[in-house]
Amino acid sequence: FIQKQENQKENLEQRLPSLLKKGRRKTVTRHLGKIIYYSKVKFKFQHCQEVSSCFLELFQSYLYFQSTDPNGLTYQGLLPLKELEVHELGAGQSPGQQDHAFHISGPLLNPLVVFCPSEAELRQWLYHLEKQIQLCGGSLALPLLSQ
């Protein structure tokens, strides 16, 4: 039973950023705070056609993504929430893709489009991102709030 718990713990830690595994993983993840929300989504850079599967993890002050494309190239990024702008893409704004999508941009960021598997998942991401961006002192570009 204890062995099983250890395996589950290791599996959870393996999901965490390889970029940030400089010391002991437990120490590193503690620096980022607790994970608020995470899921597997699809994403693409705004000006590219190629869509990749991606793990997206929301910490208290950062959004982390890690993805591997079919050629084995890994994209990863740790984005400070305070500098991010997030808004939902309406139906038809992401041609050829599902409708449950949102756009992330920031000062030093090639804009990302994130595709969620369902409307419910999209609502979860927008809710948590909006809340954490506000808590970090960032400004919101969500059209839901400006109307």
TrEMBL record:
SUPFAM superfamilies: PH domain-like (SSF50729). It comes from the Eukaryota. GO terms for biological process: 3'-UTR-mediated mRNA destabilization; positive regulation of apoptotic process; response to hypoxia. One of its GO terms (cellular component) is cytoskeleton. Residues 1-134 form the PH domain. PROSITE patterns: PH_DOMAIN. InterPro entries: PH-like_dom_sf, PH_domain, PLEKHN1. Coiled coil: none annotated. Transmembrane segments: none annotated. It holds the Pfam family PH. GO terms for molecular function: cardiolipin binding; phosphatidic acid binding; phosphatidylinositol phosphate binding; phosphatidylserine binding. This is PKHN1 protein. It comes from Prunella fulvescens (Brown accentor).
